[in-house]
Amino acid sequence: MLAALLALQADDIDRWIGKLGDAELAIRDEATQKLIGAGEAAVPRVRKQLESSDPEVRARARRILDARPPEFERLKDRDIESAERFAFAPDGSAVACFDKDRQLQVIDLAAGKVRFSIQTRRRTSDGRWERSAPCWTADGLLAETEEGAEGSLRKIDAATGAVGEVAVTWRGNRPAAAIRIIPTGDALVSAGGQLHVYFSKMAKSYFLPRASHGVMSDDGARIVGITGQGATSDVGVYVAYGSWKNMARAELKGWVDMIVATPNLGRITTGGRGGTFLAQIDAESLAETLRVELKAKLSSLAMRPDGKWLLVGTEDGKLGLYDPAKLAPVAEIDLLGEAPQFAASTEDGSVVGVLAGGKIRLYRRK
User: Fold this and answer.
1) Fold of 2-66
2) Please, what is the angle between helix 25-37 and helix 55-66, to 10°?
3) Does residue 323 surpass a pLDDT of 70?
4) Which pLDDT value is given to residue 122?
């Protein structure tokens, strides 16, 4: 009886998979919902559809898989000794980070081996070593190099490590803590407690007043910047009409020093290290639309590149994966008491990296 039931379920799953690329939208939508409802039984067959030649089938297969509550397993043999930020390649094939000797290295995730290393230099006047966070674009890796000028990132071939021309610059000589590069080559850089916008066509950067951290729209026309000011924070929206103009400002209750957004500023979330809340703000009005209290103090905040998860680190040693629409947790990674200092995800969410306790820990989605 059980064998017959399982066979029937398998036939149903195959039938609905066959309708993911149907000509009628209603049938495609029904098939998608049926396969989501089938749960884990459908996962192996749906996963094979990620290799379909039909982009509609591939997209729906990814949507079905993403609808499952994510569970992760630690890749225990892939810990990376590092105390600084890192970045995943857009295709999830590699991670760029700094090793204990302050060399930039690119590690192949499948093989677990270093593709190449590049010597970097960055030392502040008080003797402390600091480097800009590495950053990936569709064309390859951008990073600070030994021969590069301060306040700049150079293009690096992701396969060979060959160093190319300067890609981004900003004012001053402080390392960049966060960088957002859009397809046009323009960039938003947070460095030394200031926010800079870089225009690739002019190869110039401009300082945005009253902002230390920010997020940029996909077309580069709008920036939302924040500055923590003790009990309150200042939020401003900057719009480019020939030159950057500050169009509106608002006050947010509570101190914040982190801001992330879904693609094209669809949803913006802020929080402050050591604080106990997350706040969502509207990109147009800057009004607060949602606030949730956390069970422990915030230590890190990041967004999955496609905007499907918030990565919320707390000082009790947990990394929560949150629904960015509801600011509600959907899964959790237990770091056994080590507070996440930084976290990032591959574009498809298949691998999550967490910087904690001087190591980058990698977790693969089951």
Assistant:
1) Leucine-rich Repeat Variant (1.25.10)
2) 30
3) yes
4) 58
Residues ≥6 apart with Cβ < 8 Å to 366 = 71, 72, 73
Residue 205, beta-bridge partner list: 198
Nearest to 351 by CA among 142, 91, 53: 91
How far out from the chain centre does Cα 175 lie? 19
Contact between 317 and 334 under an 8 Å Cβ cutoff? The reply is: yes
Could you give the CA distance from residue 308 to residue 354 in angstroms, rounded to a whole number? 18
Q: What is the pLDDT of residues 172-190, one digit of tens each?
A: 778 888 888 888 888 999 9
From the list 334, 339, 330, the residue with the least C-alpha distance to 358 is 339
Q: H or E segment at 132?
A: none
Q: Name residue, tokens 């947070």.
A: 190
Residue 139 per-residue DSSP state: T
The set of residues, in sequence order, having a beta carbon less than 8 Å from that of 12 and lying 6+ positions away, is: 34, 38
For residue 210, the SS3 value is coil
Which amino acid is it at 19? K
Quick: pLDDT tens for 326-359: 999 988 999 888 999 999 999 888 899 999 988 8
Per-residue tokens: 237: 């929206």
pLDDT at 310 over 70: yes
The residue type found at 2 is L
| 277, 290 contact by CB (below 8 A) | no
Q: Which pTM does this prediction carry?
A: 0.81
CA distances from 168 to 148, 165, 171, 209, 230 (A): 11, 9, 11, 20, 32
